[in-house]
Design a protein that fits this description.
With 944 residues, the protein is α+β, with helices and mostly antiparallel strands. The structure holds S-adenosylmethionine and zinc ion. Zinc ion (ZN) binds next to loops.
């Protein structure tokens, strides 16, 4: 039987809906508020993956979309749903009224199918599968996939290795599906905990009359080695940033000549002081270096780090954010003596109390992400808290333990477990918002959770949240967990009767019978992107205290299990490098072998006519190669692939790195024919190129907003189909060909297509080093991209990427990525005599001949910038640039590929117009310079 996912599916519509969900930060699906988890999937793609895997191909797109909740009330009857959604997407910025009125339906995560719809779907499913198919997600994380499966009332199995998300899965998939609704009970007991904790903690959080403290703003502090000032560390002193960069509130440091403590004053800009007299953006930290505000001496980042590591620091409270009790609104004040004493009292209690002085004295293991903690002097998990934060979290835990007994007396065992599980989620939310890693967001202003990124980014200054505060403290988190999460998910699953199983353990060793699963829908770990277990330990050490007696199997070890985790983690191989193999390579091999083990077990539990749909998001080609090998080894054949663009361009620019992501859905079946017939590479090579080019053209027709990198990934889909179907592939000498070779072929096909489409023919005659630079801009559309991608691109043009760096300084490294250098990094200053110029810059603008055409273009740009149009004209003429095809092609190409917001672009534009433009007479579309309007310039100011 062919499934829907093996035919066409409405990828563009799902992409648009995913974008709607992603961009709405205020309203997420309820289960997403249960707990931080990493790489949570949006609902549309999860729902699609489940339904399209089980439904037969006879179901058309509109029927599928209707069942998924796309029910526009404003669609003309002769329009398909896909066309309607696409048109609405195009006109969304011009709408009046609310977004959902414009689209004619609410976001689909809000939609749960009614009884009739489910019956209709189930009837079709029973006809094609005999009985309702069982859906398995073996790496279920925060649970979007199994939740969607259950909402459509399909028998569902969720498995997850890490105990932290396993608790989330228990909470949302099982504990919400009981007879009794315990929303009010969770609230009642949570309030009880809160009340008791408040009684104990009040003395440590004194308040001024009429005020309720919400957050305490702290800065880590170290001594200036030169003058002895205790310097509070912060990259800026904004506490409430207005809409322009000249207005807002700031904590202004006041330095005294005879006092080693810095004092603070809250100032309003521009009323109290203008930015010319005090610029809050000038913090004490810049590029990880500290500058003392008293003597001006700079401490470099190594010295600073070693002071943190040696514990030679404390923290200074510099502002308190409070709610006004009577009027609405908030404000800031500076701390009083009373505030400081209360904090000190809390520190003393922690030092004196036996339990408190040892709680969480669990060493933080070294690791890819946790090393960042070590570098900043945090050696044990308790070090992530100030003493008062520790005291507060501990007190809440004690109160939880107290009421635990009372809850168990009042309710049946299962109900008690439900209430307790949800109460522990409240505690974890409090942990996410209250540690030395949780920062203050002056833009809103509001607190920021520490796991805003998937790492342990250290904040020089941080915020301490006042959990006992009524309105925004623990009570707010409690309401969120009870009403939004528990009650919200409960409502979604109200009419669901299908059985659900949750397992905690390795997906390579599932406690599931052979051939008992019909559809596997998998969103596997992100290669080396996210170190789930390292990140989860922060919660694990607390969760263990809260829940060990309820889930004894989850919490038997001291920290989370890292051996079985399927991630590529080079830090595991520290010191274990063997000859020829780097840590990175060893990590890659381990990931491949873990993924193979997982796929093999999935093969075992899957029925012979089952389907295996996987979501894949990796940008690195290595991950694709690894994945293909693992699929082949475990006996799967890829039968169709679909790229879904999440169309969130927004993030791209923020980092100067192209990170808009798309997800590829890969559908596989069990290989039925034996893998003994060899296929010749030559044929596979040709088909791969054709299929890749075809896929890219199809996507261009769809008009989805794919980045070029995503286009390339999309082309890997058909490559995998061909490669796994034709496996094993051999060259004419009989040697087996690796999937990498086919992926490179696909990459080449896409590159050629893009060159044809975007660049002039002449670019093919440019020297290969300059070509690499041009293609890098073309493909990655950003100055920063992963090293390995740049390396592969270099191989494609016959170059060595490291040589391009060392000899030609085309790029430099940043955190393992490639950063393309602008012309200013490469050309010597023409206004200086040769002996005074930087020897590091390879291009001499006085030269008459250049090695690379890029050098010549960069030199021309420099001359224009340094000496103006007339000198540039002479320079160009003297070097025959007007009749130099490589020079012209390179300049034309760079104007096309470098974003308008880049400084170099503007200079190239100046070269291409006016007198120099007349001389060069470039072949460019007349419209190319029109887009450089004001918005682009503003973009540049904020984003680069
Ligand atoms: C991409 S995430 C899944 C996210 C999920 N789809 C969601 O929406 O929240 C991958 C998950 O695989 C888990 N994992 C890693 N190694 C595993 C293994 N060997 N067995 C089972 N799960 C594993 C990680 O802990 C992580 O939660
Ligand atoms: Zn100093």
């Amino acid at each position: 039987m062919r499934r829907k996912i093996q035919e066409t599916i409405p990828i563009r519509t799902i992409g648009i809906e995913t974008e709607r969900e992603n961009l709405d930060f205020q309203h997420r699906p309820p289960h997403r508020y249960a707990h931080v988890w990493f790489a949570a999937r949006p609902t549309p793609v999860s729902r699609l993956a489940v339904l399209a895997s089980v439904l037969p191909d006879s179901v058309d797109d509109d029927t599928l979309l209707d069942w998924m909740g796309f029910k526009p009330n404003n669609k003309p009857s002769d329009n398909s749903i896909s066309d309607h959604v696409r048109q609405k997407r195009e006109t969304k910025d011009d709408r009046d009224g609310l977004e959902h009125e414009h689209y004619g339906y609410r976001k689909i995560w809000r939609y749960t199918p009614d009884f009739e719809t489910k019956s209709e779907i189930h009837k079709i499913l029973e006809d094609s599968w005999e009985e309702l198919p069982t859906v398995l997600d073996a790496t279920a994380g925060g649970g979007t996939i199994p939740l969607e499966s259950l909402r459509y009332d399909l028998p569902t199995i969720a498995n997850e290795l890490n105990p932290v998300p396993s608790v989330i899965l228990e909470a949302i998939l099982e504990k919400t599906r009981t007879e009794e609704d315990v929303t009010q009970d969770i609230i009642k007991w949570g309030k009880e905990i809160d009340q008791r904790a408040q009684n104990d903690l009040q003395e440590y959080y004194p308040e001024q009359p009429g005020e309720r403290n919400q957050s305490y703003l702290w800065a880590h502090r170290v001594k200036c080695l030169d003058c002895g000032l205790k310097v509070p560390l912060a990259s800026n002193w904004w506490i409430n940033k207005g809409s322009t960069s000249r207005e807002g509130q700031s904590a202004r440091p006041i330095v005294h000549e005879d006092e080693d403590e810095v004092e603070f004053k809250i100032v309003n800009l521009p009323e109290d002081i203008t930015k010319d007299d005090f610029n809050p953006t000038d913090g004490t930290i810049s590029y990880s270096k500290m500058t003392c505000p008293r003597c001006g001496v700079t401490t470099d980042s190594d010295t600073l780090k070693s002071m943190l590591q040696e514990g030679e620091y404390d923290y200074q409270l510099y502002a308190i954010y409070y709610d006004k009790e009577r009027e609405r609104g908030h404000d800031f004040r500076t701390p009083t003596e009373e505030d400081i004493q209360a904090y000190q009292k809390a520190s003393e209690v922690v030092g004196q109390n036996v339990d408190l002085s040892t709680v969480l004295s669990v060493d933080i293991p070294s690791g890819q992400k946790t090393n960042e903690l070590h570098r900043n002097g945090m050696k044990q998990w308790r070090d992530l808290f100030t003493p008062r934060q520790l005291l507060t979290h501990y007190t809440y835990w004690e109160k939880f333990e107290e009421v635990k007994e009372e809850i168990r007396e009042e309710y049946a065992a299962d109900t008690a477990d439900t209430v307790l599980t949800y109460l522990s989620l409240v505690a974890d939310k409090a942990l996410d918002y209250n540690s030395r890693m949780s920062s203050w967001d002056p833009g809103q202003p509001q607190i920021r959770n520490m796991y805003a990124g998937s790492d342990f980014a250290f904040s020089w200054s941080f915020q301490e949240h006042n959990l006992i505060m009524q309105g925004h403290g623990y009570d707010w988190m409690l309401t969120n967990i009870a009403e939004d999460v528990y009650s919200g998910v409960r409502e979604q699953l109200e009419d669901s009767e299908a059985p659900a199983e949750v397992h905690q353990g390795d997906a390579a060793n599932l406690p599931i019978e052979a051939q008992s699963v019909d559809a596997v829908v998998l969103d596997p770990p992100y290669y080396g992107m996210i170190m789930y277990a390292e990140l989860a330990d922060y919660f694990y050490v607390w969760m263990k205290k809260y829940l060990q007696d309820i889930y004894p199997d989850f919490f038997h070890s001291q920290l989370t299990e890292k051996e079985d985790e399927a991630v590529a983690n080079p830090s595991k191989f520290e010191g274990l490098e063997v000859k020829n193999k780097s840590k990175k390579e060893l990590a890659r091999e381990e990931y491949e072998s873990k993924m193979t083990d997982i796929f093999e077990d999935l093969y075992r539990v899957m029925s012979d006519d089952g389907i295996f749909t996987m979501m894949f998001t990796h940008k690195e080609t290595e991950a694709w190669d690894t994945l293909t090998k693992a699929l082949i080894k475990s006996g799967f054949v890829v039968t169709s692939t679909h790229p879904i663009s999440t169309e969130n361009q927004f993030r791209v620019q923020q980092s100067g790195r192209n990170s808009a992501d798309s997800t590829i859905l890969l559908a596989s079946e069990k290989r039925m024919k034996s893998a003994s017939d060899y296929t010749l590479w030559e044929g596979v090579q040709k088909r791969t190129r054709e299929a890749a080019a075809k896929r890219v053209k199809e996507l261009e027709q769809e008009e989805a907003e794919f980045t070029k990198v995503d286009m390339m990934l999309a082309s890997f889909g058909p490559t995998l189909e061909i490669f796994t179907q034709e496996y094993p592939v051999v060259d004419d000498e009989g040697n087996e060909v690796s999937p990498q070779k086919a992926l490179d072929e696909a990459r080449g096909a896409v590159r050629d297509h893009l060159i044809d489409k975007y660049l002039n023919e002449g670019v093919r005659d440019v020297d290969s080093k300059s070509e690499w630079y041009i293609l890098a801009w073309l493909m990655f559309e950003a100055k920063r991209f992963p090293y390995d991608e740049g390396r592969r691109l270099a191989i494609g043009v016959g170059e060595n990427v490291d040589g391009l760096k060392k000899e030609h300084r085309l790029w430099r490294s940043r955190s393992g990525d490639i950063l393309l250098r602008p012309h200013g990094d490469r050309v010597q200053d023409v206004n200086k005599p040769p002996e005074n110029r930087s020897g590091r810059k390879p291009v001499d603008p006085d030269s008459l001949a250049f090695n690379l055409s890029l050098d010549k273009v960069h030199a021309a740009m420099h001359v224009y910038k340094a000496q103006g149009e007339t000198e540039a004209w002479n320079w160009l003429k003297e070097r025959n640039c007007d009749s130099d095809p490589s020079f012209k092609s390179t300049l034309e190409a760079l104007i096309k590929v470098i974003p308008n917001s880049h400084d170099d672009w503007e200079i190239m534009r100046d070269l291409a117009v006016g007198e120099t433009g007349d001389l060069l007479d470039l072949e460019l579309d007349s419209g190319i310079f029109e887009e450089s309007d004001l918005t682009d310039k503003q973009d540049r100011l904020t984003n680069y």
